[in-house]
């Protein structure tokens, strides 16, 4: 059976949903030790990122298929990020082009974007994404390194999730019809190169772009060291929101060791399960410079769609 249950795609983790839950619940293991009699009359949550102040240390992670949550999809996300004064990651599987997404945000206010990339079997197409992103004004490539193949997602399989008709994928240069002709797994993960490696990918990327190069999906001090050796600018400590390899640790639990390994030689950001200001505080206290968030932004888009449908039905 084929189905288009968007929640199966947006909300799901991989296999038994262990990591997706642990990402959030692990924050409750950490307690905040305040120091007292400190002058807090003049404080700011702003941090500097890509040579610009953002209002607070939370940006929006790249997530594909936002057109399934709302027709404006990534355009709306970009506007919202600009309004909030934070930066945004653009997925290679966005339903709008990087040029349109940047234009939509920039109309609202100052905003920077980063382009998410997978190592692809079609290197020429991968290079076209990089060049388009750079020309459009992206500040960095976020190379997602945890997805040589797509995660095992029982919740999607159970209902035969298929991306809906009518959505385009301008960055990977596919229409929904082309995606639907392949099975869900083939349609998506066949673009990713299962034979990717540090040596194949990073020097090549470095040779084709001046943008910063970040590795998204790092969970170990060893890979932080690899990213430093390969001259990368930053890493995002991430397990893909528990959607790729299940039973990997919560990102907050591996952050201290990763930050220690970095010793200030590379930027350390984090995502996965961050849902409140105290989560952000703990991540910063444990060594991250900035946090990123995925699903809550998608839920916001989907609620806007639901409200507009409700409103139309009330009016008529
Ligand atoms: C529906 C959905 C689609 C995603 N698509 C991508 C993607 O295209 N590329 C990518 O690198 N990460 C993708 N991610 C992972 C996010 O960038 C991020 O790592 C994750 O959502 C963070 O966890 P959180 O949702 O608990 O905040 C996706 C996540 C979700 C929920
Ligand atoms: O679902 C994801 O996590 C993801 O990275 C993805 C995979 C295929 C299409 C869009 C996003």
UniProtKB/TrEMBL annotation:
Keywords (A to Z) from UniProt: Flavoprotein, FMN, Oxidoreductase
InterPro entries for this protein: Aldolase_TIM, Alpha-hydoxy_acid_DH_FMN, FMN-dep_DH, FMN_HAD, FMN_hydac_DH_AS
Domain FMN hydroxy acid dehydrogenase as annotated: residue spans: 1-316
List of catalytic residues: 240 (proton acceptor)
Binding site for glyoxylate: 118, 153, 240, 243
Name of the molecule in the record: Oxidase FUB9
CDD domains, A to Z: alpha_hydroxyacid_oxid_FMN
Natural source organism: Penicillium cosmopolitanum
Annotated FMN binding sites: 62-64, 91, 116, 144, 216, 238, 271-275, 294-295
Cofactor: FMN
SUPFAM superfamilies linked to this entry: FMN-linked oxidoreductases
Signal peptide start and end residues: none
């Amino acid at each position: 059976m084929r189905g288009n249950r968007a929640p199966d795609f947006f909300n799901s983790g991989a296999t038994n949903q262990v990591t997706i839950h642990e990402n959030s619940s692990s924050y409750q293991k950490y307690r905040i030790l305040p120091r007292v009699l400190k002058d807090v009359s003049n404080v700011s949550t702003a941090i500097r990122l890509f040579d610009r102040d953002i209002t607070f240390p939370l940006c929006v992670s790249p997530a594909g298929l936002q057109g399934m949550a709302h027709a404006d999809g990534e355009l709306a996300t970009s506007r919202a990020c600009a309004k909030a004064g934070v930066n945004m990651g653009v997925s290679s599987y966005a339903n709008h082009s990087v040029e349109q997404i940047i234009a939509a945000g920039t109309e609202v206010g100052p905003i920077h974007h980063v382009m998410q990339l997978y190592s692809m079997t079609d290197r020429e197409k991968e290079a076209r994404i990089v060049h388009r992103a750079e020309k459009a004004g992206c500040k960095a490539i976020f190379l997602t390194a945890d997805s040589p193949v797509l995660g095992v997602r029982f919740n999607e399989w159970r209902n035969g999730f298929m991306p809906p008709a009518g959505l385009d994928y301008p960055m990977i240069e596919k229409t929904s019809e082309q995606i639907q002709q392949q099975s869900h797994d083939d349609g998506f993960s066949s673009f990713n190169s299962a034979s990717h490696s540090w040596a194949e990918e990073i020097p090549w990327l470095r040779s084709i772009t001046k943008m910063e190069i970040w590795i998204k999906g790092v969970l170990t001090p060893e890979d932080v060291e690899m990213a430093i050796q390969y001259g990368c600018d930053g890493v995002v400590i991430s397990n893909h929101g528990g959607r790729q390899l299940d039973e990997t640790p919560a990102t907050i639990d591996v952050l201290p060791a990763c930050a220690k390994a970095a010793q200030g030689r590379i930027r350390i950001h984090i995502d996965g399960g961050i849902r409140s200001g105290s989560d952000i505080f703990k991540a910063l206290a444990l060594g991250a410079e900035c946090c990123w968030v995925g699903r809550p932004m998608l839920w916001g888009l989907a609620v806007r769609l639901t409200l507009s449908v409700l409103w139309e039905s009330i009016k008529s």
